[in-house]
Write a structure and sequence with these properties.
By secondary structure, the chain is of the alpha/beta class. It contains 14 helices and 21 strands. The termini are far apart. Mean pLDDT is 91; it is low at 5-20 and 281-295.
Length: 577
Amino acid sequence: MSQQHLAAPADDTAVAPAAQHRDWWRGAVIYQVYPRSFADSNGDGMGDLAGVRARLPYLRDLGVDAVWLSPFYASPQADAGYDVADYRAVDPMFGNLLDADALIRDAHELSLRIIVDLVPNHSSDQHEWFKRALAEGPGSPLRERYHFRPGKGKAGELPPNDWESIFGGPAWTRVTEPDGTPGEWYLHLFAPEQPDFNWNHPAVGDEFRSILRFWLDMGVDGFRIDVAHGLIKADGLPDLGAHDQLKLLGNDVMPFFDQEGVHEVYRQWRTVLDEYAEKEGPEGPSAEGRGRETGGRIFVAEAWTPTIERTANYVRPDELHQAFNFQYLGTDWDAEQLREVIDRTLAAMRPVDAPATWVLSNHDVTRHATRFANPPGLGTQIRTAGDRALGLRRARAATLLMLALPGSAYLYQGEELGLPDVVDLPDEVRQDPAYFRGAGQDGFRDGCRVPIPWTREGSSYGFGGGGSWLPQPAGWGELSVEAQTGVAGSTLELYRAALAARREQPALGAGSGVEWLPAPEGVLAFRRGEFTCVANTTGAPVTVPAHGRVLLASGEITESAAGAEVPADTTVWWTTA
């Protein structure tokens, strides 16, 4: 198919650094790279793997443990690479397999781990299987690997059921058969260019276990599983009996999401990953230049479920290692709400002995510096800039709170620069497929995908020599890595200091609980061993007891005999060590 193929945390609130090394993922900070928007090595306006490779020292110096790469596979790019035509090839726009191999090797030399995106729910309509399924017509064995069905109505002119696409419109598209007549319909929960696999067919499972081994043999350290909750559909593909189905997502178990059968898929995958852990031995991999400490490969689930408790089902001991905490991501900057979701998360993860994860931004949601700049309750897709200064202040405070919590944290490229969402992109430059389909997702994900700035000057502020695939705002250079490096109080230096402290403080990172402390209304205060975190989510300063020596603060605090005055929307770290 491809032309590029190459050969238990303790119950206490702190875990010793050695334990973090053995199970590195329990307390890891993982940085998401969106390759097309990170760094462009050849000046074509599109980021690529060679660009990522050249910037790996920056990520090492930032202080992260691993890098998660959004898809770079061969793809027509109908959905920014989440429509995969060949899972064993690199799209030429990003480079080739030699570039991927070099990136992985360089990352390991720098003691960085590499996690790659895997898209098992659907393929591209240009995948060889799907093209053959269309060409061979009804009855083709290849059609059984997808969800092809006859339509309803006298002439089969109606979709097989009432399911709606996440991107808007029906979740079914009718094909034209080889003889030119209207024919069967195929299921696509996302864009029509993304037909859903039929995971009840054994060939699909066989293929993906082979794909796992291909990339594991290349040396990757794990996989982020796209739409991990979507692989298995309810028997018979029953009607949902409701319109505006997007409003139900995250509130109910759907016949196409979070079905029990998905867990058997991941149990099978886990046996594959465990084979590689055994090959590496107790002291880690033997290949030269890996530069890694002890520990194995991991799976991370993108699983949108109705509750944190259902998310925990994906990280049982014989399934996946981590699952994104979307409930936390969607929580407003409010102490009461935050404490509730923190407590529920930690309580849900303890029985399955899995680490909690915390995340504030990613490639699918409005950046948190912009979300927090707007009034609460607007969700994760916001189209207004809001109060920029307020948003940045809250974003900095929210980051320190997140990095203080027990478990693993995810950072999205550019958040360490305090980047806002670009909310005023002209309609003609937008590329989010949901933008062009009515009644679907808001379709404004391009705003968080604008290429990040590295330098003050240049056609793309150091992103590359030939502009950028999405236009960058004027003034982007003043938020660049160059403009913030070495500047006391800059958001970049705050992140660097926070990640350094997180590595140095034995109480931070992996763990399963916090000790909540008394605090004024609107303030969160908790202790982890000799470490204390206080977050003021209110719009006014508060005075709290000092908890030892100040390690770090997201804003200027004032200490006196009465305690410490913590400004509005500010988080402080203390230690008694």
